[in-house]
Write a structure and sequence with these properties.
Radius of gyration: 33 Å
Number of domains: 1
Shape: globular
Oligomer: single chain
Strand order of the largest sheet: 3-2-1-5-4-6
Helix content: 25-40%
Number of strands: 6
Order of helices and strands: EEEHHEEEHHHH
Low-confidence stretches: 188-196, 203-224, 243-255
């Protein structure tokens, strides 16, 4: 099934413990297996697109990006903290909004995503050979070997390789013993991920309230207690009132 297939119209995704987003349900379970299927979130999307800009001078055609990824926008959030995504029909590269993107990986060997990885690997090698004076030209196989090593490591640990990690392994690759100056290939110039907020709809909070008891301390109460203590410490001690001495009473003198 190609990207143009109408069957994949929505996804449900969840945030994993690794802080990556993973697909939990799809509208097309026959062709798309949600088990171990990652999805690139808006922060990661911005990071990748920023890095891809540096490869345009080395032969990367934006059209291959468009055909590789299927874009989704946030449609809602469920009470189980899964997020509902709806497919974007327009060209996502022309949209100024935060989007999740899913690589088209149905055919692992001949999929648009496989072609995309091959293309950005070749472009990255050209960039590195252009910017770094190697004793011997860098070969594509060196990056491919590193990708396989990362994937094998994840496999041995029982983890699925997330698409973001796979793509950035290529886009950030620099051979051991070498480095690129920040800005030469766009690295270090991308927007801070913390400045890109994913706009997720709020869900209703549970109406069930926790019963308070003596063992529970609340911030406002602690502040009030501290305030009262301070008042007591600052308040000067009142001097005890002197007891009024009783007047002596005698008999009137006899004249």
């Amino acid at each position: 099934m190609s990207k143009s297939s109408p069957k994949l119209q929505w996804l449900k995704v969840r945030l994993g413990e690794d802080l990556n987003w993973w697909v939990s349900e799809t509208s097309d379970p026959i062709h798309w297996d949600a088990d171990g299927l990652g999805i690139i979130d808006p922060r990661q999307n911005a990071n990748i697109m920023e890095s891809l800009d540096a490869l345009r001078d080395y032969g990367l055609d934006p059209e291959i990006i468009e055909t590789t990824f299927i874009a989704f926008r946030v449609a809602g959030k469920d009470k189980d903290n899964t997020v509902e995504l709806r497919r974007v029909q327009e060209s996502f590269l022309e949209l100024d909004e935060q989007l999740f993107i899913l690589p088209d990986t149905l055919d692992e060997e001949k999929s648009p995503y496989a072609d995309f990885l091959d293309k950005i690997t070749r472009c990255r090698v050209k960039l590195l050979n252009d910017l770094i004076d190697f004793e011997e030209k860098l070969e594509i196989e060196e990056i491919e070997d590193e990708i396989r090593e990362e994937q094998n490591k994840d496999y041995m640990e029982g983890k699925a390789t997330h698409f973001f990690n796979e793509v950035t392994t290529i886009l950030d690759y620099v051979p051991d013993g070498y480095e690129l100056e920040l800005g030469d290939d766009g690295e270090g110039d991308s927007e801070d991920e913390d400045d890109i907020d994913i706009d997720l709809p709020d869900i209703e909070e549970d109406d069930e309230k926790i019963e308070r008891d003596e063992t529970m301390r609340w911030d406002d109460e602690e502040e009030e207690d501290d305030f009262d203590k301070d008042d007591e410490e600052e308040k000067p001690e009142e001097e005890p009132e002197e007891e009024e001495k009783p007047k002596k009473r005698g008999r009137p003198r006899k004249s």
